[in-house]
Amino acid sequence: MPNSKKRYAFIVSDRTGLTAEAMAHSLLSQFPEIDFKTETFTFVDTAAKAGELVKRCHSIRSSTGHSPLVFLTMVNEELRSQFKRAEVEVFDLFDTFIGPMEQRLGIKSSHTIGRSHGVTDEKAYTSRIAAVHFALQTDDGMDIEHYRQADLIIVGVSRCGKTPTSLYLSLHYGLYVSNYPLTDHELEQKRLPEALQEFKEKLFGLTIDPFRLLQIRQQRFAESNYSTAATCQREIAQAEALFRSHQLPWLNTTRMSVEEIGAMVVNRTKSIRGVRV
Amino acid sequence: MPNSKKRYAFIVSDRTGLTAEAMAHSLLSQFPEIDFKTETFTFVDTAAKAGELVKRCHSIRSSTGHSPLVFLTMVNEELRSQFKRAEVEVFDLFDTFIGPMEQRLGIKSSHTIGRSHGVTDEKAYTSRIAAVHFALQTDDGMDIEHYRQADLIIVGVSRCGKTPTSLYLSLHYGLYVSNYPLTDHELEQKRLPEALQEFKEKLFGLTIDPFRLLQIRQQRFAESNYSTAATCQREIAQAEALFRSHQLPWLNTTRMSVEEIGAMVVNRTKSIRGVRV
């Protein structure tokens, strides 16, 4: 019965669903044998919308024999209980912890909706947006005269992931992150590019498996000299040698997501240099 | 006793801590009377690191009378139990659900570490990176000849949040998102700019409170005509009139975070046009 390992999972939130999605994916990934068909429902904030979903759960149960696993984050008691009353298989990601927290803190929770992704601190928010603009302005070696303002300068060869990493760090952590490409010519010199020498303590190197780099480069510039195995191998070896000789913190990003790279850069940066996040 | 409402909260993860952080902030925001001092500890993956944290919990309890609330996401049983044995106040965000899930699914979980933010699907990952490059390439009205490839084109006046929204949608959802600024001149015309007319079904409008826009613009170009109350008010009124007359989906972003704007755009887009995410 190949189909017996296929299950539905619904992620249901009264707001953006971002937290619920992250949690649910983390939990579901612990059951790799099962082929989950997941669907996210956001802004489920009325009894009608909740009722619609309960109906879908029942109809899936009728046709497959299994109710979907429902991962809920909802503040409204009444909406939550619509699911529970209906004998749907609910994992209440939120309410499960609110009770024990109330007990330990000795006060009642406010039961207000979706505070976590809203703009609670306007200053912090504005500075995240400013950080994104800074990252764009100083992307790919542009506007090096602003490096004094940077919290971090990501360095690495072309297409190793510098731009998405810089943007993620600015969007998520509000850091001022520039990035600077190590080009063929500069790598041949075997020394830090002029523009970076003054800012050694802000540098963070990214590297990647040469074969993965080759794949990425070939997708864009199949015919170029830049996309040969030999070039990729040489550039990566030279970049890593440079990181080592200057004792820069660096990271191999092969098979890491932007989120992981970002968290790891911040983790290392905090312990190495105490940048505030 | 003003200090009695101050409490420590530790977020402890064996990986990036992103999921744990989102959940913990969502839970803590339900207790607005308490001034939580939160700290996140990522990549806590050895007994030594866990032991260090347990010690800190005990020392905080000695000095404040309260143990920190510890929000854990850890796959390793042994590390988790270091906290539990030490009588620290643990909220186990992960393990709390694994048991009930095993029961309902009828199989054991794999207990493998941090799958959720890793690159599990290389194709999906590469396409997110490609989406970021597309968003950069078609930022702020550039490269309009690529609009045929776009999933969405964000439109709005200058500094209303188009760029961060486009980047977030591309990074998080892998959507191909362009953005196009509605300029003074185009707004006066009271019709859709030439470049957009062919792609009406891909347009999504952003607007913002004129006073908030004024603040943002003044931070950058204090002296310009562009940063007067009258200009902001007129531009926003004209942009909203344009959205209405063309029946574009649109959103007022005042006081919304990029995450909320992103989730809401996707939510509306799904239901309106069935873009696949």
Please provide a written account of the structure:
Chains A, B: Bifunctional serine/threonine kinase and phosphorylase involved in the regulation of the phosphoenolpyruvate synthase (PEPS) by catalyzing its phosphorylation/dephosphorylation. Chains A, B: Keywords: Kinase, Nucleotide-binding, Pyruvate, Serine/threonine-protein kinase, Transferase. Chains A, B: ADP binds at residues 156-163. Chains A, B: It comes from Granulosicoccus antarcticus IMCC3135. Chains A, B: It catalyses: [pyruvate, water dikinase] + ADP = [pyruvate, water dikinase]-phosphate + AMP + H(+); [pyruvate, water dikinase]-phosphate + phosphate + H(+) = [pyruvate, water dikinase] + diphosphate. 2 copies of one chain form a homodimer. With 277 residues, the first copy, chain A, is α/β, with parallel strands linked by helices. The first copy, chain A, has 2 domains: 2-105, Rossmann fold (3-Layer(aba) Sandwich), CATH 3.40.50; 122-273, 3-Layer(aba) Sandwich (Rossmann fold). Chain A is 46% helix and 15% strand. Chain A has 10 helices and 8 strands. In chain A, the strands form 2 sheets. A 4-stranded parallel β-sheet of chain A has the order 2-1-3-4, sandwiched between helices. In chain A, strand 3 (69-73), helix 3 (77-85) and strand 4 (89-92) form a beta-alpha-beta unit. In chain A, helix 8 (210-220) crosses helix 9 (229-245). Chain A starts with 5 loop residues before the first strand and ends with a helix.
List the helices and strands and how they pair.
Two copies of one chain form a homodimer.
Chain A: E1 6-13, H1 18-28, E2 35-41, H2 47-64, E3 69-73, H3 77-85, E4 89-92, H4 95-105, H5 122-137, E5 152-156, H6 162-173, E6 177-181, H7 184-189, E7 203-207, H8 210-220, H9 229-245, E8 250-252, H10 258-273
Parallel strand pairs in A: 1-2, 1-3, 3-4, 5-6, 5-7, 7-8
Helix pairs in contact in A: 2-3, 5-6, 6-10, 8-9
